[in-house]
Design brief:
The protein is α/β, with parallel strands linked by helices. It folds into two domains: 208 residues, Alpha-Beta Complex (2-enoyl-CoA Hydratase, Chain A, domain 1), CATH 3.90.226; 47 residues. It has ten helices and ten strands. The longest helix has 15 residues.
C-alpha cells in the first residue's frame, strides 16, 4: 500500500484500488477550497497511474460530505500559501475541476456514501460512475431553502440519472432522500446495511478492480460522448474506441481465455 500526504484528504493505493478520503470528520467532511484542490491533485495523479484499476471516493467518519463549509471555505494566514494550484482548464471554481476530472478519468470512479451526502458533496457523488450507499443515507440538496443555487453539476447529472421530473422536484424543494427512495429511483446503485457497508462495498470494488480497466475506460468515454451527441455520431465514436481497445492486452486475453474456456486474467492494460 502507498499513500500520498495531504492536509484535508487521505489518498491511498492498495491492490489496484485508489481511495480518496475526505478527512474533516468533525465537520462532516465539509468542503474547503484547499480540500477540493487536494482532490484535484489526487485525481490528476490517478489519471496516469497504471497501478490504479479503480478509484474510490468516500468520507471519513459517519458521513460522506455535508457540502461546502460556508463558514470557512478559505484557508487562513500562512496556510493559504500551501494551496495546490488547480489545473488551467478554464474552471472558475475548483468544484468544476473535480467534476471534470471524475468524468474524464478513464477508470471507474465509485462513491461510497453513508450518512450525510448534501449540497456540493451530493453533486460530487452524482459525477461518479457508481454510487454504493449505506442504509443510513441522507442525500439531497437543501440549498434552495437558503436561496443558494446548485453550482457543480446537479442540473446536468440529476435529470440524466433519475429523470427530469424527479430531478426538478428534488432540486426545487431542497428535500432530503433516504436510502430506500434513493435506490428506488436509481439515484444509488446499491444499498447495504451500515453494519455490512465496509465489507460489502469492498467486495464490489474488488470485483470492479479485476475487470479490464482500459475497456471500462473506453466504455465510460462512449457513455460521456453519447450524452451530447446523436445516435449515428455515437455509433461512429463507439467503433473508433472499439478499434483502439482491440490493441489492448486485456482484449487479447479476453478472446484467448474464451477460446481456452478459462477465467480471464486481466492486467488493466
Amino acid at each position: 500500500m502507498s499513500e500520498k500526504k495531504y492536509k484535508y484528504i487521505i489518498f491511498t493505493i492498495n491492490n489496484g484500488i485508489g481511495t480518496i478520503i475526505l478527512n474533516r470528520p468533525h465537520q462532516l467532511n465539509a468542503l474547503k477550497y484547499l480540500l477540493l484542490n487536494e482532490i484535484i491533485d489526487a485525481l490528476n495523479f490517478s489519471m496516469n497511474e497504471g497501478s490504479i484499476r479503480t478509484l474510490v471516493l468516500r468520507g471519513n467518519g459517519q458521513s460522506f460530505c455535508a457540502g461546502d463549509d460556508l463558514k470557512n471555505m478559505e484557508e487562513e494566514g500562512e496556510e493559504a500559501t500551501t494551496q495546490i494550484k488547480q489545473p488551467n482548464d478554464g474552471s472558475i471554481i475548483p468544484h468544476h475541476s473535480v467534476i471534470r476530472l471524475i468524468r474524464e478519468i478513464q477508470k471507474p470512479v465509485i462513491a461510497l456514501i453513508q450518512g450525510h451526502c448534501l449540497g456540493a458533496g451530493f453533486e460530487i457523488s452524482l459525477a461518479c460512475d457508481i454510487r454504493l450507499a449505506a442504509d443510513n443515507l441522507i442525500i439531497g440538496d437543501h440549498r434552495a431553502k437558503r436561496a443558494i443555487c446548485v453550482i457543480s453539476g446537479a442540473s446536468w447529472f440529476l435529470p440524466r440519472i433519475v429523470g427530469f421530473g424527479r430531478a426538478t422536484e428534488i432540486i426545487m424543494t431542497g428535500r432530503h432522500l433516504d436510502a430506500k427512495e434513493s435506490l428506488e429511483i436509481g439515484l444509488v446503485n446499491k444499498i447495504y446495511p451500515l453494519s455490512e457497508f465496509e465489507e460489502k462495498s469492498l467486495e464490489f470494488i474488488q470485483e470492479i478492480a479485476k475487470l479490464p480497466t482500459a475497456c471500462l475506460g473506453y466504455n465510460k468515454a462512449m457513455l460521456n460522448y453519447s450524452q451530447n451527441n446523436e445516435l449515428f455520431p455515437s455509433l461512429q465514436h463507439e467503433l473508433e474506441l472499439f478499434i483502439q481497445n482491440m490493441t489492448s492486452h486485456d482484449y487479447s486475453e479476453g478472446i484467448k481465455s474464451f477460446l481456452e474456456k478459462r477465467p480471464p486474467n486481466f492486467n488493466g492494460k
